[in-house]
Amino acid sequence: MCTDYYCRINSDEDVVALQQLEDVTLIFETDSGQRYLVANAGTVGEVELKGNKVDMTMAGDPAELI
Q1: How many domains would you assign to the chain?
Q2: Tally: H helices and E strands in the chain
Q3: Confidence band, pLDDT 50/70/90 cuts, at residue 1
Q4: Any alpha helices (H) in 1-66, and if so which ranges?
Q5: Residue 12: is its pLDDT beyond 90?
Q6: CA distance 51 to 49
Q7: Of 2, 3, 16, which Cα lies nearest the Cα of 54?
Q8: What gap in Å lies between CA 42 and CA 54, rounded to an integer?
């Protein structure tokens, strides 16, 4: 089962490389400080540069609290 994850990151990352992510491990932290791991993640759709941020959607296994 794949789950989608919306991401907003700083634009100093390589947008082309972000567009091509496939079979990576995604670790993210919520506003409350909880950290999650998503295995088998990859970029879905287009990566969008918006000002000094990059918006993207990734899909992968369900997130696990770490």
Answers
A1: 1
A2: 1, 5
A3: low
A4: 15-19
A5: no
A6: 6
A7: 16
A8: 15
Range of the domain at 19: 3-65
CA distances 16 to 21, 27, 53, Å, are 9, 20, 14
- The alpha carbon dihedral of 52, 62, 29, 41 has a sign of negative
Cα–Cα distance between 52 and 61 in angstroms, integer? 29
Distance CA 29, CA 27 (A): 7
User: What does the pLDDT look like over 35-57, one tens digit per residue?
Assistant: 999 999 999 999 998 888 899 99
pTM over 0.85: no
